[in-house]
Amino acid sequence: MTAGRVLKGIEFARPEGSAPLLLDLYLPAEPKRSGALPAVIHYHGGGWRVGARSSLGPAVDALGLSPIERLVDAGFVVASADYRLSSVATFPAQLLDAKAAVRWLRAHAADFNVDADRIYAWGDSAGGHLASLVGLTGGSSEYGSDSGDPTDVSDTVAAVAAWYPPTDLLHMGEQRLPDAAASADDPGSREALLLGAQPAESPAKAAAASPITYAGDHAPPFFLAHGTADRFVPPAQSATLAAALEAAGTDVELLHLEGADHMWQLPGQDPAAAATAADATIDFFRRQAHTP
Fold it and tell me: What is the DSSP letter of 15?
């Protein structure tokens, strides 16, 4: 990353009975163009159980590709936000927190030279699930706020990029690959901890927490990327959401990376899949923002 400002640990929400939620804000050193800048809000992965803002997971971080910093170098403001983990609260707390981060950035757009009409969402794994939900439930009265943030500010985003996101929690288990390392139907799975119940035993909860439920003609443009050998989130999760979005008339791009496992792992720590995903994601956001 070229010299720029990184403002760490900014409080953006304080859910009742929970610790304050923080975000890191990355600002370009020198804007490459006049006027307000596009912005991306990033949500980290970790199965809704672990993880930290500004991380794309240990395996991706270790490759040194720095996609957040590369987005900043491309002229974007990037905010990477916390959300309550499943050990603290069950769904929809995580979505409420993700939406609160959008509202905070839009409410403070003028303070950081952000274009409030060009705010985008991006996430990996569990964060990709939240980014997808943010994009598909924008403006919905169904999910308000429990943290006192200003709900009169819009929580909509102009586009979404999601890496290997869970999109259909009810059918996720049956879509697992033969060599899957984890299944949503396992007792105490990540998905069950998110919902507070096994998906099959609480289909209404599973549907409410599934991005595919909300796919419709209101959706913003989507970019989905998934490895074909993902043992944690079945590749069909991205494919079925892409099909549902396309059927609803949404502008959707689906990138399948052959042989890549979760977090873009390839044999021999080959960074090719991660590099391709990062390049394609940055290109997607640049096209959405109409930046050179």
Answer: -
Q: Is the dihedral of CA 206, 212, 218, 222 positive or negative?
A: positive
Q: How many CA atoms lie within 13 A of 190 on its CB side?
A: 20
Give the HSE-up count for residue 59: Cα atoms under 13 Å, Cβ half-sphere.
19
Helix residue ranges, H only, the chain: 58-61, 67-73, 93-107, 126-136, 190-195, 203-208, 236-247, 272-289
The tens digit of pLDDT for each residue in 32-85 reads 667 899 999 999 999 999 999 999 999 999 999 999 999 999 999 999 999 999
Residue 190 CB: number of other CB atoms within 10 A? 23
**pTM confidence score:** 0.96
Residue 64: exposed, middle, or buried by beta-carbon count in 10 A (0-12, 13-18, 19+)?
exposed
Residues 6+ apart with CB under 8 A from 21: 11, 12, 13, 14, 15, 81, 82, 83, 84, 97, 100, 101, 147
CATH of 5-289 among 1.10.260.40, 3.40.50.1820, 3.30.1300.10, 2.60.120.10: 3.40.50.1820
**Residues linked to residue 11 through DSSP beta bridges, in sequence order:** 22
pLDDT in tens, 93-134: 999 999 999 999 999 999 999 999 999 999 999 999 999 999
